[in-house]
What does this fold into?
Amino acid sequence: MHRLWILILVPLSLAAENRSWWVGYQYEPKAVVTEYGDQFSAIEFLTCENAKYFTDSQCNEVSENGGAFSRLADLNHDGVKERWSVGIAKYKTGKYPYANVVVVSDPTSKKVQQVLIVELEEPSFAVFIGDESNMTLSFCMLCGFFMNIKWENNKWMLEFPDEE
It folds into this structure.
């Protein structure tokens, strides 16, 4: 009986750890950047271009689930694609110590058009899910916790979907 318990416990714990690494993932931002708001002491934009933020396996899983940390998209449907990037920021002071920061910029000039902020208690990551005409900001890839990105009154907004 004791051996059976160990044989069952080990595979289940390994599967759970492998399947849901993103639920507990945290990254402490360290880069001092002031162009996205002086309320932050540090901000970093996540990427899979090197091993600084994620392993190859984690990046593959993000991609396989339709996620991206940066994407070109025309979410206001004006025929022009903007560069959408998401990162983690640390506030200098305030109620919440961290934020996911979404920067919308011109892909050619790199000029920032808008910055969207989601306040956080811990430095967790978010990914864009969707395509170039309809995206959401997902906070744990497969758990259903996300915000819709919408164009309203000549600006982009993040909002939780209506609860039904």
Notes: The chain has two helices and ten strands. Residues 1-19 have pLDDT under 50 and may be disordered. Residues 24-159 form one domain.
